[in-house]
Amino acid sequence: MSDLLSYRLAGRAAGVVALLVLPFYADGFWLQSGLFAMAAVLGATGLNLLTGIAGQLSLGHAFFLAVGAYGYAWLSAEPSGGGSGARLSGVGLPPAAAFVLAVALAGAAGGLFSPIAGRLRGMYLGVATIALVFLGQHVMLDSRALTGGFNGRAVTPMELFGFSFGDGSPEGLAVLGVPFGGVERLWYLGLALVAVGLFTAQGLRQGRPGRALAALRDSETAAAVMGVPVARYRCAAFVASCLYAGAAGALTALVFKRVVPDHFGLALSIDYLAMIVIGGLGSVGGAAAAAVLVSLLPQVLTTYADRLPLIAPTGSDGFGATPGEAARYLYGAAIVLILTFAPGGLAGLARRRPGAPVSAPPAAGATAPHPATHPSTGKEPTP
């Protein structure tokens, strides 16, 4: 056991070192793709708290990413004239403050919806959250002074304590002889956000809130008998998920440098649902690994499309699926295989010992094994 723990710690340390030195070796395309993957990790971690741990289905995650992305773009921008003569509104806050407030704005949007989330569950909540995506598309396309309409709006680069994470000042920045432009600088900001997000999510999952949410997922009646305020914890899980989505949306805006409505459609919500299913419901590490896989797969297929069968490069008239379509086919097939043969997802496969039987995660309504602990106090109930 100690040897296994040592190997795991050594592997994690090697992974951290590799991520820290990657900007010195990788080109801008792969660094940008990695930053999009970091944003996906944040968003998938938040959805996993809601769906994987609390057992609440949400198909409106793209809406809250849009709130974070457009919130940062609006809060950090100065009012200006649009390219077609339309005037774009803005608040002109410092970018760091705008980022924090954009995350809070996504949480506030989740708080406004949380009374509905507290009353509905399962498929009913999933259908209700789909309405948010369509509402968001309507707002993004029609509120041109705020969102820029169909063409979107540009994003102000991040600045922190006078240091710019864009391609501007300080110009000509180099570290160990390697030029550090905006994408290299933003890489380390993304790593810091992901580290904080994963650490917080792991603490929530293993602490009293996580035990209470797991009790809700397994049996609401039993959780209520044990003293868990069902509606309050449902609402709290929904708001926490929205905060993560807001951070993911704001980071996506910083990487893409422009926010457009097409990116925040229903397909994005489906992508995030695929991430947590492939990674393993309830597993923070599994959701993060699957988020990297799902977000990077289209980029890999785009790069090597001319060498792969049945895949047509983007913009070509050749026979085959586009890289984006092929990626969805592949992880759609992965979902079917995982649900059939490995219900625990990537996390379950990583924990599984050779020769051990595959067991499914606890289904909704299943009772927890005894002796159980109180989800709020962590103590065993008195007979």
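[next item in queue]
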Amino acid sequence: MMTPTLRVAGLTFAYPDGSVALRGVDLTVAPGERVALLGPNGAGKTTLVLHLNGILAGGAGTVEVGGQRVDPGDRAGIAEIRRKVGVVFQDPDDQLFMPSVAEDVAFGPANLGLRGAELDARVDEALAAVGMSAHRDQVPQHLSFGQRRRVAVATVLAMRPELLVLDEPSSNLDPASRRELAEIVRSLPVTVLMVTHDLPYALELCPRALILDDGVIAADAPTRDVLADDDLLGAHRLELPFGFDPHVRRTGGATPPVRGGPTLRG
């Protein structure tokens, strides 16, 4: 059997004030899977993500990435874990701080010791993957928000991660940028964990969905089945956009169908 990209077993965590964020989370993600992590605010999603690269630790349970245990006390090991787990934050400006796009993308690999032609190749590869090669010499802050998000993805891809974590990737994107990012994510040969409140985007990109609520996994099933269960969504304070029907299959950039209405084709 293939080693899972991510294995979380019995993970618990409480903050210093005593508030319990995770209550025995069990989760396995296979190589190449795209999984949506859904849940209301305060459910523990961010806490879980911060355990994946060792930023948070200290509770019971274990986290393994590619078979390697996440142990913040192992300095060499945690450096490798942080290469394996690439997190793209909701605000791309949290990740872009260099004078040019290419320098931002090169920053991580350069810290790994890459230089010269090898570093240039890594930057070229990452920018091509997100369709931003033509902007390599631009100042990141002069790009549109959607372009900056794509560069932020490239900064993570340049590290060649095993697990790509996307935090609310569709937030603040116009429809064209949203579609372009979806096409990029679908094309990436990497395991994806997408944290999102955007349920239609989860359905578009992730065949599998988890609901995390009150620190436990409350559902783990095909995304369409999760979104079609009105009682399940209601119990965990999740809502589909008005008129969106998860029962109707869509392809590509099709317009979301309206419940009880005709299927619209894009």
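[queue empty]
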